[in-house]
Amino acid sequence: MNHSRLALLVLCAAPLAACSATAATNASQALDTRPFPRLAAQVADGPVLVEARYYLDHKRTFGAELPREARVLPVALKLGLAPGAAGSARIDPDQAGARLYLPDGTVLASKFQAAVWTEFKSVNDLVAANALQSRVLPPWSAAGESFVYFVLGEAGEVFVRRGELTLGAGEDARSFALADALIAFELELDGQVRTLFVGLEVGNGAPRGN
């Protein structure tokens, strides 16, 4: 994967005022038009392996539908070192700056788990228990999944249905498959900050440990 080229393309997605309008116009003309290449849901970047999944049935993990109850999109990340890899990698969610890019260039920022709130204490406890924590990455064989939470904004701005996300309403609504999204975040690899990019798999089931 050419990360230099990918980083340049993703930079176009960051300043929304500058390029999201053009990207949205192009996206309406051709479904495959996006400001970044489609990535697999599991990628290797040097010694680090990363995998991202969106589980359709939130109730199996949290006891509630988080897009509706907390206005966040929960995405499970699995992070670990490839078999036989040398070096050390560490992630700190407070510094990772995780963000989710939609095919029109729209960026959804992540939210600290402590700020994810519902009226149900049991749900809030599960959100915290399943959240990505600061850690040194284990070997891939010992890695489990934990969640980052992406902000959906106020009710009426973004709708989530199954594996699709819709921005706006009426004639101006734009819908995208979450499988076409891209996730980016930073971690520390051998003392140096590195940006990783990964696609997103959508499916049923429940996360595999954390």
Structural commentary:
Helix content is 22%, strand content 34%. It has 210 residues and is α+β, with helices and mostly antiparallel strands. It has one domain. The strands form two sheets. Strands 1, 2, 3, 4, 5, 6, 7, 8, 12, 13 and 14 form an eleven-stranded mixed sheet that branches. β1 (42-45) and β2 (48-55) form a beta hairpin. Residues 1-33 have low confidence and may be disordered.
Key traits:
alpha+beta, 34% strand, single chain, disordered N terminus
Q: What is the chain-wise order of helices and strands?
A: HHEEHHEEHEEHEEEEEEEE
Strand tally, please?
14
Helix content, binned percent: 10-25%
- Mean pLDDT comes to 82
- Which word captures the global form? globular
Outline the fold blueprint:
Layout: H1 3-13, H2 16-29, E1 42-45, E2 48-55, H3 59-62, H4 66-69, E3 72-81, E4 89-91, H5 93-96, E5 99-101, E6 107-111, H6 121-129, E7 135-136, E8 145-151, E9 158-161, E10 164-167, E11 174-177, E12 182-189, E13 192-198, E14 201-203
